[in-house]
Amino acid sequence: MSDFATMQAIAQLVPLGSRVLDLGCGDGALLAHLQATRHCTGYGIEIDDANVLACVQRGVNVIQLNLDEGLALFDDASFDVVLQIDTLQHLRNAEVMLRETARVGRLGIVAFPNFAHWPNRLSILLGRMPVTRRLPYQWYDTPNIRVGTHADLRELALQSGLNVQDSFGIQEGRAVRFAPNLLAGTSVFLFSR
Amino acid sequence: MAMFAQSQTLHFAEPLLLQSGKSIRAYDLSYETYGTLNADKSNAVLVCHALNASHHVAGVYANADATIQEKSAGWWDNMIGPGKPVDTNRFFVIGVNNLGSCFGSTGPMHVNPNTQQVYGADFPVVTVEDWVNAQALLMDKLGIKTLAALMGGSLGGMQALSWTLQYPERVRHAVVIASAPNLTAENIAFNEVARRAIVTDPDFHGGHFYGLGVIPKRGLRIARMIGHITYLSDDVMNAKFGRKLKQSLRFDSYKSQNHTDAYSYTTQEVEFQIESYLRHQGDKFAEYFDANTYLLITRALDYFDPARKFGGDLTQALAIAKAKFLLVSFTTDWRFSPSRSRELVKALLDNNRDVSYAEIDAPHGHDAFLLDDPRYISLVSSYFNSILSEINAKIRTEATA
Questions:
Q1: Are B144 and B167 in contact (CB under 8 A)?
Q2: Which residue, of A56, B1, B55, B199, has the fewest CB within 10 Å?
C-alpha cells in the first residue's frame, strides 16, 4: 500500500505505544511510520529479499518468513496489534492466517483490495477483469490469488468466529462508512478473538 | 590498495578460571586490528572465528619487501576491510585467536608453565564461555568497554551470542550468522567421528605426540574430509563434481561413447573427482592444523548450550541479553539449519528484543556464510550502516549536551 494517505488512515487505527506485528510488511514504511508517529515497537514479517533489505536499511526489525508456513514463531496474544495490510490476497492459507492474526494479536487489522468496488463491478459487467490503480495487474500476472470483497471478508470473519469490532472502506485516504462494499477500493476490518 | 594486517600478541599473567573449574595462567592471545578506534571508543567490532580459522580476519600479510604475501588474505576479507560491508574506514575491527587454537594464542602445542612440559592432551578443556571471558580481558587491555558489534558465523556466532549473555552491558549489536543455540545430536555425532579419526591415528599418542617427531595427519585428514562434506550442500557438490571421474581431468573420458569403460575398477585409488577434492582438502588441512586443537574446538562446539542452565528454556536464557540482533541463515545449510536460527529469533521475540532475521536462499550450504552472495553482503552492509548512524547520532547528542 504505497498511498501515503491510506497508510496514515491505517496508522490512526493503531493505539499509541502498541507492540505491533506487521505481516507482509513490504519495505517497512508503515512500521517506520508507526514507530516515528505513534511510539510503537515491533517487527515486520517479509518473504521478499529486497523488502527485507529495505527494512534493515530503514532500521525496522524484520523477520524473513513465508507466511504460508504459519505463525508458529509467535505465542498467543503476544502482540497488541497484528497488521495484515494488503497481504491476505497473496496467501494460499488466507483463512488460516486470518485466525492466526486473531490468535497472535489482541487486535487484528486487515486491509485488502475490495473487488466489489463499483469500477471493478463495471469492468466485469463489460466482460473484462478490472485493471485499476488499486488492482493494477492483468488477470494472467496478478499476485492477488485471493480475490474477495468487503462483504466476503465479513462473512469469513464471522465464519471463523472472530469478533469484528469495526469495519469500513478506505477511498482516497478517507474512511468510507456508507456502502463501503460499493464505494471503497480498500476494505478494512478490526477484529479480535 | 591492499590493507596490510599485522598479528599482535598480548600476554596475560593472571590465571583465567575456566568453566570446567580448572584454570590457565600465563597465556598469550594473538589478535589483529584494522581501522582506527574513534575518540569515544564507540566504533569497535569484535569478530569471532569458527572451527578452523584464526585472528587473521581481513587484509593481507606483507613480505619483507612490502609486496603482498601470496594467499595471505584474511578468512573474512570479502566482508571486512576498507569500503567493505564492515568498513574499516569507519569501524575499528578486532580479530582474536581463541585459547587452545593453533595460530598464535596459547594452545596445546605450547609449554604449560606449571609443569614446563608441552600441554598436549593436558591442555584444559575450554568452552565458548571461556573464550568470551578471555576476549573480554583482551578488550579491557585495548581500553574498549563497549563493543559496537560482535560478529561471527557458525561457532563464531555462538561466541557473539554468548557475549550478549555474559557481558550484556558491553554489547550493542550482535550479528550471528549461520549459527545455533546448541548442537543437535547429529552435529555432535559428526564431531565425534572426526575426533575418533584423530584419536585412533597411531601417530596421535594420546595427544602427546609433539616431542616424538610425528603428526597424526591421517586422523586430521579424515576429520577435515567429514567436516567438508557437512559444510557443503548436496546440490552444490553435485553441481561442482557430480559423478565426474578423476581421469576426465586428463582426458574427456566421461563424454566418450561408453564411458563406463573409463572406470579403473579400483577400490583404493581415487576414482571420482569428489574423492580427489576431499583428499586434497584433507592433505592441506593436515599440514597446518593441530590435532589437539581440533579436539578442543569441536568439544567447545558440543558443550555450548546457554539454555541448559534454564532447563532447556532458551527464552529464559536470552532474557539477560540487551543487544540488538541481526541473524542470518542459509536455506541449504543443514549443519546449522535455518530452523536453529529461528529458535534464536523466537527466544529474542519472546523477550521483546530488537531482532532482524534473514534467511538467504543460497545453494552453498554452511559455507555460504564465507561467500559472496549479494543479498547477504548488502544486508550486512546495511546493518553496519545503521550501527554507524547510531554511533554518529550518539556522538552528536553528546556534543550538543
A1: no
A2: B1
Answer yes or no: pTM beyond 0.90: yes
Count CB atoms within 10 A of the CB of residue A41.
16
* Contacts A55 to B, Cβ<8 Å: 356
Q: Is B122 a catalytic residue?
A: no
**Segment B41-95, tens digit of pLDDT:** 999 999 999 999 999 999 999 999 989 999 999 999 999 999 999 999 999 999 9
The distance between the two most distant Cα atoms of chain B, rounded to a whole number of Å, is: 81
* A17 near B CB under 8 A: no
B154 given a catalytic annotation: yes
Question: Cα B57–B59–B62 angle (5° rounding)?
Answer: 125
Its ipTM equals: 0.93
Find out whether A166 and A107 touch, Cβ atoms under 8 Å.
Answer: no
- Cell 485493471 identifies what position? A131
pLDDT of residue B253: 47
Q: Helix, strand or coil for residue B118?
A: strand
What is residue B58's predicted lDDT score, i.e. its pLDDT? 97
For residue A43, the chain B residues in CB contact (below 8 A) are: 349, 355
- Quick one: residue B325, left, alpha or beta (phi over 0 = left, psi -120 to 50 = alpha)? beta
Give exposure, B174-196, as e/b (b: 16+ Cβ within 10 Å): bbbbbbbbbbeeebbebbeebbe
